[in-house]
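[Target chain]
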Amino acid sequence: MHIEAYKTNVKTKKDASLLVALLQFVISDCIINFDEKGQETILKIETNRDIKEMVYRVFSKQGFHCQII
């Protein structure tokens, strides 16, 4: 497994929880969590496959932005 990290514009724990639930529904075989680093909220996903497009789609549909780092 490898870890993909995404810089996000998520500001609240409620929004982070919603996104984790949606991502786990779409990508059920991954470990997903958010880390707050100062002003930034980083999404980390432990996975065995390419999931970048699925992550972007979920964020976009919910009105959020993320960028792989």
